[in-house]
Structures are given as C-alpha cells and as structure tokens.
Amino acid sequence: GDRKVEMSNLEQGRYINYQRIEDNLQVVRSRLNTPLTLAEKIVYGHLDNPHEQDIQRGVSYLKLRPDRVACQDATAQMAILQFMSAGLPQTAVPTSVHCDHLIQAQIGGVKDLARAIDINKEVYDFLATACAKYGIGFWKPGSGIIHQIILENYAAPGLMMIGTDSHTPNAGGLGMVACGVGGADAVDVMAGIPWELKAPKVIGVYLDGKMSGWTTPKDIILKVAGILTVKGGTGAIIEYFGPGVDTLSCTGMATICNMGAEIGATTSLFPYNSKMQGYLEATNRSDIASYANEFRHNLTPDEGCEYDQRIEINLSELEPHVNGPFTPDLATPISKFAAEVKKNDWPAELKVGLIGSCTNSSYEDMSRSAHIAREAAAHGLKAKSLFTITPGSEQVRATIARDGMIETFEDIGGVVLANACGPCIGQWDRQDIQKGEKNSIITSYNRNFTGRNDANPATHAFVASPDLVTAMIFAGDLTFNPLTDSLKGSDGKEFKFTEPRGDELPSRGYDPGENTFQAPPKDGSSVNVAVSPSSDRLQLLTPFKPWDGKDIIDAPVLIKAKGKCTTDHISAGGPWLKYRGHLENISQNCLIGAINADSGEANKILNQKTGEFGAVPTVAAAYRDAGIPWIVVGDENYGEGSSREHAALEPRFLGGAAVLCRSFARIHETNLKKQGMLPLWFKNGADYDKISGTDKISILGLNSFKPGQDIELEIKHEDGSTEKILSTTSINEGQWEWFKAGSALNMMASAAKA
Ligand code: F3S
C-alpha cells in the first residue's frame, strides 16, 4: 500500500491514492453491510468523510474529493477567472486545460488551425499564461480533443475526475469515474472545496457473447440509447459487466462511456481488465497498470451487488445501428434502416459523412475505416459524399499518418480536419448546401440534436459507427446496407465490402507527433496573466464586496418573473457565449428572457427610481450604481436547465442581493449561494401573488439569523402600505459564511491568507 505511482507522466509528485479507496471502503462496508457495485466503490472511495456521510443511492448528497479537473477552452475562461479571484497560488488538485472547441472547420487541418490561433489569440494567451501561473497543464490548439487527450495521458482506473464538458465520461473506458460538470463545480474542486453529487443510482448493463463482422462498440451504446432514451440515465451511473466486456477494446469502451452522456447518465464505467492494462502499457503507463492489478479487488464490482435497473445485451446478436435524425435515442438496426428512410421521407442522398471526434477516433476506428476505404479504392471508387476525418489528438493523427491511413483517406477524397471538435460542436463553415435546405449527413460523433453540426435545422444528422459512415460515403446513399448490398466498381463489376478489420493498438506503437503540451513551470508565481484591459472577450474579476452586517432595506423588486425561468432565460446562450470570459459584457444578457409578470413582456421593467421602463440589465446596473440592492422574484423551479454559472454571477455583478421564489432548481440555488446572494423561498407559496414589480422588499433580522431559521420580509407597496411575510432558506452554516464573506471564493481567499 505504500507504493508511489504518479497519476500521469506529465505531472511530478502527484500520486495515485488507491489506499484511500481501500480505507474509505472499509468504513463504508462496515456501515452498509452489502455487496457494492463498482460505481459505488469508486464514488464512496472518494468520500470526504466516510464516517459521517449519509449514503443512500438516489437520495443523499455526497461530499466528494475528486482526483483531478479538466476544462475545455470555452468553459475554462470563466472557471479560471473565478479561480484567480480566490487568490490561491496553485490548484488544489491537478488540472488540465484543452484548446479544442474554438477551431472552425473550413478548408482542412493546417489552415483552419492557423486561422483559429489568430482569431482566438487573446483567449489562448490568457489560458496559457493563467495555466502557467497556477500549475495547470495546458494543451495548445492543435493538440486534440479534451477526452482523447485525457484517455491518453490522465485517465486511470479507480480515479475520479470532473470536467467542464458533457462528454467527460469518456474516461470510463479506462475505469475512471469521470463526470461532466458546470464551471462552478470545477472552481470549487480547484480551490479545495469538496464536490457535491447526489449519490448516483447504478444501472447495470450485462454484456454477453462477442461481436463480429460490422458490429462495433458504438453499436452497443446506440442500442443502449434506444432502450434507455435521452432521459433514462438521469441520476445514474451506467456500469457494464459480464463476459462480453473483455471482448471490447479499451478505446471501444471509451466510446461507449462517452456517448452515455446522450442518455443523461452521471457517467458510465467499465471494470478494470486486461484491455485497459494493454492500453495503459501502449501509452507508457505500465506502472499504473501494475498498481491497478494490485488493487483489482476495488476496481471490479462485488459479486452479488445490486443494480437499480438491469439491461442485457447479447453481443453475438447485436446488429450495427443508425440513430437519428434529430435525437440520439431513435435507434434503427441497419437491416431496417433503408425502409425507415423511405417510410419517414428522410433525404436518402447522403451529403456528408464525418468520422472521428472525441467519440470515435481511436486507432482501431481509423484502421477499420481505412480498411473499407482501401477496398473501395481497389475497385476504383472515390467517395460520392463529402468525407471528413477528425483525429481526436495529435498522437492519433501522427500515428495514422505514419501508418498510411491519412493518405488512404485523402486518396478517396477525404479531408482531414484539425485535431479539434470542429463540426461536432457546430464549428463548421459548411458550403455544400443552403441554410434551410433539407439534407442528410451521417457522423460517428455522439450528439445529433437539431442544428448542432451546421446550424441548419433542416439537416438530418444520423449517428453510426465509423465503419458504416465510411461504407456509406461510397454509395452516397443512406439506403445502402454494406452488410447485404453491393456497389459497382470502376470496371463495371459489382462487389461487396468484406467485413472491416482493424487493430486495437498500433503494432509499431503510438507516434506522439508534435509536442503540443505546455507543462507549468515549477514556480509560476512570477508569471503575468495576459488580459488586455481593452479586451471585449476577457475581463479580470473583482471580488464581490463582503456583507456589511446590516439588514437589506427597501430593495426594489427588479423583476417579478412569471412561469418558467431557466438559466437560459437568466443568461442566454448563442451569440452571448463569445463573452463568457467577460462578466461585464455578458451581463448585458441578464434576465432578458424572463417574462415580467406585471406586463407579460420580456426585458422591459420599471425603474422605480425614475419611473421609466428599461431593459433589465440597464435598470439593474442603474440601481447598483446608485448603491441600491435589488431583488428578483420568481415562480417554481427557478434556474432549472444547464448549470451555467453566469446565471448566478451576472445578477450578483449587477448588484442583486436576493432571489425570492416559490422554489429553486438545486444547482442554480447553490450557485447563487456561492456568489454571495440569498436564495429565499416563500414560506407560503401564495405570497407570490402579493408582490408586484412596483414593490420594495426589506430582508430583516439578518444579524441574528441562524441557518434553519425563517427570515422575515417586509413588502412595501407603491401606495406606501406594508405587509410582512416569511421566507425560508436552505443556507447551511458553511454557506452562511460564504454570504458574509461576499462569496465562497472570498472565503477561500481569506482562509488561504490566514
Ligand atoms: Fe468536442 Fe464534440 Fe467531443 S464538441 S468534446 S468533439 S462531443
């Protein structure tokens, strides 16, 4: 147990702590007295306090200590700006930042990358310098996609990671509990605050048999998505087990875990096995493999453990699937797909086939696709549809280039894009069709919601294995089934594709390619973080002011919001995302989507000081600049939707003091607390009707407030009449300290100084 094995070859002195899992589980076992699933072993193995933590699947909120954090460049900006304001010298756990989301696919890898580096220079410079200062590993643009790089360098069995991207679960292919989170959670863990997660339920997927022919790991998750639907995994970890598991490649398991995000799962997970060992060895981490072998008993489920739900799939009978259009859970086996295309009037002509991405760009995927492409080329064929290849990392690109596959793809008309997200996240300057034109594309990516790839709502995007995508581009037709149908070669003769073959791992080893990693210097304290004061995309944060110890008196109601008020209503996405590193600029979208209960209109509210109507952000800033705190009043489930932390940062930045609602969505409520705002619940929901946008509200008795107590409010109506109502709050002792300090990070900062 006293072995020291580094978590990654890229970080010195940061060790894997399998002993903590062992020790935690000893405590947890004595309390629960029941066989444990693998998901439970790893999750409970990371409990902050195994002795006192309440543990009930689907019920308790667990306080956890993840081993590391990963951020992609779009979400990293605000996360790092916030971390900086905590005033800590280094991140509390090893962290990495990956530049993959901001590179647009236009012409091809090299030129697209050069253009992106130019356009996004200030963002990249900021991230590079901030990473150097705070001890964060920085992966430059061109290095590859976050999840592939994590698999190659940082994922390890039994560890726990959070990442600010929904497909973080990809690392489950190496037996890691890896969860996608919002920026606020990432900041907490970087600052040393435990991470809170509702104790996940566990869905067991039993795999029996062995795949053959055209069936691939992708087809397992396409099938599971069809069974569970896009909501079926919510609140659960999906754990695979059974004899079929050992027949899958490690990278294939990663594909399955990656796409588990499509069914809403907290994460997905495979037990440690020899395939993982082989992948660790191939990526220069045999020491981790041998350490994992010693701790295998904690990296596999207990016999007799119980799943909340159980699914069985016989791999010997599993057909290749095509999922879509418009949703990843509409699963059709290839044998029935042509008929579905005709029946549903989906455009049969295949415009574009896209392979690769974080989901499916392993050596195995690429070599099977290259096998198909070579066979077509031998019959004199070129791709009929446009064909793009997105390598998941520089290492994948360099290795498949060395082994001749890039040449194979280019010979049949393929275009190799940059090692980046590109069309998968809509970074695609698509030229072959007009917006609004009905058309079909097929990808080996994971997500196919309307408009995701090319912003054209009429594009029918289907998802399948890279094998099916590659075969179909030679037919140029969605009704082509390579298992049964033939194509005509250039000699006029019909031929059928043979079953694709590939290698799980490159026989000559991986070629690392260009070095695209910036390791942090040993001492980054003298590094200057590059943020231009004239930038409109980035702005350093100024810590929010601590509470002055007084009650909040006569705070005008900024807006009484009616009906649904999601984080999208509070902080809109789309074009605003450009400003996600600039709080002042992005705050111009604050609550502009909320419906004013007094008028039924959006973004038009009364300025109680001037008596004039104005836009919500304008009126809010005017109050703030006059030193007047304000309050938002909301209905049920205020702040539901994505966990976007801007929805809490913006009202605080604009001078908000509290949000008073019938009920809150939990994550947003916590985010408000973290930023030093008071989330208050009407004790009596009907009191919502007593308030209008012309009222002022006083929050009383704060000085003697103790968590658990009600808080008294006084409403002052326009005519001068007043009435008192009660509110409740879920603020606990620790969170009350956040409020007093002005924010959770302020508190961390003062603790660090003390
Ligand atoms: Fe990027 Fe698409 Fe994966 S956006 S991280 S390649 S899901």
TrEMBL record:
Residues 556-684 form the Aconitase A/isopropylmalate dehydratase small subunit swivel domain. Its cofactor is [4Fe-4S] cluster. Residues 491-506 have a biased composition (Basic and acidic residues). PANTHER family: ACONITATE HYDRATASE B, ACONITATE HYDRATASE, MITOCHONDRIAL. GO terms for cellular component: cytosol; mitochondrion. GO terms for biological process: tricarboxylic acid cycle. Residues 40-476 form the Aconitase/3-isopropylmalate dehydratase large subunit alpha/beta/alpha domain. Its EC number is 4.2.1.-. It comes from the Eukaryota. It catalyses: citrate = D-threo-isocitrate. Residues 491-525 are annotated as: Disordered. Pathway: Carbohydrate metabolism; tricarboxylic acid cycle; isocitrate from oxaloacetate: step 2/2. InterPro entries: Acnase/IPM_dHydase_lsu_aba_1/3, Acoase/IPM_deHydtase_lsu_aba, Aconitase/3IPM_dehydase_swvl, Aconitase/IPM_isomerase, Aconitase_4Fe-4S_BS, Aconitase_4Fe-4S_dom, Aconitase_dom2, Aconitase_mito-like. The lineage of its organism: Eukaryota, Fungi, Dikarya, Basidiomycota, Agaricomycotina. The keyword Zinc-finger does not apply. Pfam families: Aconitase (PF00330), Aconitase_C (PF00694). Its main location: mitochondrion. It is found in: Mitochondrion. GO terms for molecular function: 4 iron, 4 sulfur cluster binding; aconitate hydratase activity; metal ion binding. Keywords: Iron, Iron-sulfur, Lyase, Metal-binding, Mitochondrion, Transit peptide, Tricarboxylic acid cycle. Belongs to the aconitase/IPM isomerase family. Binds 1 [4Fe-4S] cluster per subunit. This is Aconitate hydratase, mitochondrial.
